[in-house]
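Structure in, sequence out. Go:
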């Protein structure tokens, strides 16, 4: 049999480095987190060839004392903890003491550092874990780390790296995530001598969101703030209109550390479920402050995952905070014909340029032609980023907000809303000129405070607004047109009725205001073994909400009574589908979840599209929408109402130039 021996230190270091350093982004992560832990207020990251050949991280932090520089590169050397008890009160980003030794084991490292107490700095060089030189140099206060030729001594691992472009993209993504977690630190990222990101460090999280994600995201944010026990939560979530088809925009941080958590992700998506389509995911940027005693961060080598002492409490806090924020905003999407035309024209232009083998750009002699299509110079340069500029708490996105901004977004200034000036003033302000008569380019409009803008907004679905609704009629036997306050609202009768039935059913079931209706002859269900277990497990819940189900022999069950609101749609397939839906979520533990499943089934009784309704029925449907907590999306996430402004229509008919 093979003999057991102790590995040499060089091999041990390389194996340990493999657990921490996977690619250039891993090096940048460790060095950037060290800079933040060193109380730096400004950090510059520079990479070349995706970070494979060159990485430099410079900070203005506290620096490393000369006598401790060499010690910093030893395994398990750290200033963050001193005993095992400290693992339970960690508040820093790094603490294991493996980062520098791991980086030095697989690259050529040079560090220049100086503390405020030292007259001169120290330059220290180490390659492949072996010290090369140490000398005094003149240097500013802070630390500069340079890592060259990553994996130069482990060529097999170097072969597994992707292209420089791919590795650079990973570094850029990492820098953005850390910048979003520390708005108090000015972070600059330079890639191949080009500045890719520069944050101000002015403590404004919203400014960084604008810098990283652009105007569209920044214009559609809802603030979040909650507190419970040892947990504080603040940040922003996106309106459903900016949903994405993957989870890349779900970002959350705990004590400044970017993490991944299936528990938090599930809470976020559960809160958004009534507001967006299936397979769509929201934008979130949430910062948690949690007492370190309630966390275990020593779970994964990259510290990307952690454990909560009270996972259920965290889940409910996130769920309730997001539901409250989403339920108190009028989320009616705006029909945006002008933007669609511009986008289509730009796409045609881009395709034509690519077919001619050129990089798309706007030539001077073609500007006049493009302007005839309604495309501005700014739109030509930034077609991908053009989006409405709306205050973050604006309840209704407006099509006319596509008008080109007189000035870019500035720090500590609210995002201007060009459409805000069109909204009529309240009765108390009739002595002033109507808002619709003010010129849209007025400088004062862009300087209005967000709170002032809200004074001129009235919601369609408010009881006080109901008397001013003007029902125009039914379109395509599916949509109802309503005029209100210089806006045309289009209501999907099927989606609206679905939501009315859903919320009414939820309310009745939770308040035990339900009735059971007999089914004759009984519905006979034949269930599989797993379905039988589920039915028996939740039988009490089914009974509470109006089902009467009894064994009928073997694998069969007789359903002799159903909730009254399900009577018209009670069929064998429907009931089997409801039981199957429970099996998809093994965490169902309370009757509220059963209620939601039953309510979802009740939506099948909603009036369908292509069905002629009377005006009285449409008015009754609108009256019922007024009573809902969230009337703006059906249970499946589709909008119930969309709107188009008078201004947008007048532009289409060239009444406004």
């Amino acid at each position: 049999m093979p003999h057991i021996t102790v590995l040499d230190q060089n091999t041990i270091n390389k194996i340990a480095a493999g657990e921490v350093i996977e690619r250039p982004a891993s090096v940048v992560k460790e060095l950037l987190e060290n800079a933040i832990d060193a109380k730096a207020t400004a950090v510059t990251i520079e990479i070349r060839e995706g970070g494979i050949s060159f990485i430099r991280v410079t900070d203005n932090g506290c620096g490393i004392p000369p006598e401790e520089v060499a010690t910093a590169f030893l395994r398990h050397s750290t200033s963050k903890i001193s005993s095992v008890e400290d693992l339970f009160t960690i508040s820093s980003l790094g603490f294991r003491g493996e980062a520098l030794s791991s980086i030095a084991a697989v690259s050529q490292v040079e560090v220049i550092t100086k503390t405020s107490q030292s007259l001169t700095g120290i330059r220290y060089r180490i390659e492949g874990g072996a010290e090369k030189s140490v000398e005094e140099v003149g240097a500013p206060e802070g630390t500069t780390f340079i890592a060259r030729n990553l994996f130069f001594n482990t060529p097999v691992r170097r072969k597994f790296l992707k292209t420089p472009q791919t590795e650079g993209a990973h570094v850029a993504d990492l820098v953005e995530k850390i910048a979003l977690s520390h708005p108090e630190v000015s972070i600059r990222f330079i890639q191949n001598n080009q500045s890719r990101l520069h944050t101000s460090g002015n403590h404004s999280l919203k400014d960084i969101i604008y810098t990283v994600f652009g105007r569209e995201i920044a214009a559609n944010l809802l603030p979040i703030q909650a507190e419970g026990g040892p947990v504080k939560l603040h940040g922003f979530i996106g309106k459903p209109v900016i949903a994405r088809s993957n989870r890349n925009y779900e970002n959350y941080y705990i004590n400044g550390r970017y993490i991944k958590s299936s528990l938090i992700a599930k809470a976020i998506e559960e809160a958004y479920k009534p507001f967006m389509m299936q397979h769509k995911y929201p934008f979130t940027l949430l910062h948690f402050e949690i007492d370190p005693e309630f966390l275990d961060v020593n779970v994964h080598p990259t510290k990307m995952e952690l454990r909560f002492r009270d996972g259920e409490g965290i889940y409910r806090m996130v769920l309730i905070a997001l539901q409250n924020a989403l339920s108190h905003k009028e989320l009616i999407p705006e029909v945006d014909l002008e933007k669609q035309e511009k986008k289509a024209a730009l796409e045609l232009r881009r395709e034509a340029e690519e077919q001619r083998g050129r990089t798309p750009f706007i030539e001077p002699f073609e500007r006049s032609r493009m302007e005839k299509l309604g495309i501005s110079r700014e739109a030509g340069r930034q077609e991908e980023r053009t989006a409405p500029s709306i205050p973050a708490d604006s309840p209704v996105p407006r099509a006319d907000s596509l008008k080109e901004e007189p000035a870019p977004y500035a720090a500590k200034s609210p995002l201007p809303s060009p459409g805000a000036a069109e909204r009529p003033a309240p009765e108390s302000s009739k002595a002033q000129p109507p808002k619709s008569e003010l010129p849209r380019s007025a400088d004062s409009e862009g300087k209005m405070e967000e709170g002032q803008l809200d004074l001129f907004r009235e919601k369609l679905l408010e009881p006080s607004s109901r008397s001013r609704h003007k029902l125009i009629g039914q379109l395509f036997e599916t949509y109802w047109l309503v005029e209100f306050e210089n806006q045309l609202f289009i209501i999907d009768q099927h989606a609206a009725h679905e939501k009315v039935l859903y919320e009414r059913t939820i309310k009745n079931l939770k308040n035990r205001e339900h009735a059971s209706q007999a089914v004759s002859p009984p519905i006979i269900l034949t269930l599989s073994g797993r379905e039988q277990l589920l039915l028996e497990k939740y039988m009490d819940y089914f009974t509470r909400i109006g089902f009467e189900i009894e064994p009928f022999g073997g694998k069969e069950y007789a359903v002799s009574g159903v909730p009254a609101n399900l009577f018209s749609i009670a069929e064998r397939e429907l009931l089997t589908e409801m039981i199957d839906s429970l099996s998809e979520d093994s965490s169902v533990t309370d009757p509220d979840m059963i209620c939601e499943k039953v309510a979802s089934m009740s939506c099948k009784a909603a009036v369908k599209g292509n069905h002629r309704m009377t005006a009285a029925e449409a008015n009754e449907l609108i009256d019922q929408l007024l009573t809902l907590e969230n009337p703006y999306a059906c249970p499946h996430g589709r909008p119930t109402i969309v709107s188009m402004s008078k201004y947008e229509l007048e532009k289409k008919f060239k009444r406004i130039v």
